[in-house]
Amino acid sequence: MNSSLNGDRLCLRTQIAYGAGDFGPSMAGNTLMVFFFFFLTTIAGLSPALAGSILLVSNIWSALSTIVVGILSDRTQSRWGRRRVWMFCSAPILGLGFFLLWWLPPFQDWALFCYYLGAALLFQTGANGFLIPYGALVTDLSEKNNEHVRLNSLRFGFSLAGCIAALLLAQGLSYYLDEPRQLWITGAIGGVAIVVSIFACCWGTTEQRVPTANPVKLNWGELKLLLGNQPFTILMGIYALSWMALHITPAILPYFIVHCLELDTSAITSIVLVMQVTSLASLFIWEPLSQQLGKRTAFWLGSSIWIFGQFALFYLQPGQIYLMYGVASIIGLGMGATYVVPPSMLPETIDWDELRTGQRREGLYYSILMFLYQVILALGLFFLGQWLAGSGFQETIPGQGQILQPHSALVAIRQVSFALPVLAMLGSLALTYFYPINSAVHQDTTFQLQQRRVAASNSLN
What pLDDT does 218 receive? Predict the structure, then answer.
């Protein structure tokens, strides 16, 4: 049994191994987040409407499969525990799916659409097999609130390091290769990194052995009981909206950089790199602030900085590359709070649920968070594609250069770059006002749980 669960501090080796698990998947996820929508419309030659449809269908599939994976991982019994066996088996599927997303097949129109849809579905299937058990693994490693914050900080530290590595790789390859070959090689390297980092995490961590005498069932009564957990229902909105903003901002940014600021596509990588390096550095600020000021206050502060950065972005004019770097730094600083705070709230709601029901349902809870996030993200990306298509945006024909976009498309890009992230963050901030768990409440919850476990142990003896 993990030493942390017996009252000792979680060892550094386990903390680092847990965090390292997200390095390769984040290399893949960041490349996908920044370049994939742009790739589909400007290199592969799909219309924004079809590209948006691919992201809608694949993310809806991802949302539905999260619930299944969450429940099955809660029920799983193996010598590897409940979570790591899923992570181990999903690694090659995730790596292969990511590689296939960047290949340019000799297809056109609907055949091309079907190929990328199939590759996206394969990738999302592998991603859920990893992400749901990986996110739930936190509470199987430690029950201490401060260590939840530390594990999530290390996770997103490695996550951002993976994002930065992907951007540096793309930047280096851009000096020697054209964009299609650059992304194809990035896909191959990212696929290998996925497998290596997930295997390293599985090898370096040890799960708590949790009894599964009362397996979770997916039915209306169970769902009503789960949704009766008020902190969790509020966290669903906080998490889904803030993480939609976190992922949709880089997806829109390439369009803003190329078409509104009239910069070369090579500027995309360097600007996003500045944003994510700042996010990584800011983790060393937001972790202690969340412990000293409270998670809610730290999240409010970070989100306010981010929203200010989006306002500044809206007013940038063509050619203002140095101001763009400054705005990217401000946005990255605010994003850091979103990486740290909402994920570290989940263990609190799981403890609250255990005190209320007597069950530990980490996988189910994390899968529901991911379900709602995936649905909202899918709708946001689909809306982005439809907004661009309705504005007259012209996709690039493969083999030709960039097309001069009409004024209506430029206005639409500027509007959506501002509106989608800001509205999502404002909604997330409004929900934090109603979140009822603070440090004192969680300490009382864990104390009562410990007392209950001691009493149960004594009764067995």
Answer: 55
| Side chain identity, residue 322 | Y
Which of 436-444's residues contact partners 24+ apart within 8 Å by CB, and which partners? 436/230, 436/231, 436/234, 437/231, 437/345, 437/348, 437/349, 437/352, 438/294, 438/295, 438/296, 439/145, 439/294, 442/145, 442/348, 442/351, 443/145
d(Cα 457, Cα 68) in Å, to the nearest integer? 32
Residue ranges and CATH numbers for the domains of the chain are 14-207+215-449 (1.20.1250.20)
Q: What letter would DSSP give residue 3?
A: G
- Say which amino acid occupies 312: A
Please report the sign of the dihedral spanned by the C-alpha atoms of residue 286, residue 231, residue 432, residue 334.
positive
What does the block give as tokens for 336? Answer: 């850091």
Cα dihedral 112, 113, 115, 121 in deg (nearest 10):
160
For residue 335, the model assigns a pLDDT of 92
**Distance (Å, rounded) from C-alpha 437 to C-alpha 223?**
21
Query: What band does 220 get if pLDDT is binned at 50, 70 and 90?
Result: low
Taking Cα atoms as reference points, which of 224, 337, 327, 358 lies closest to residue 286? 337
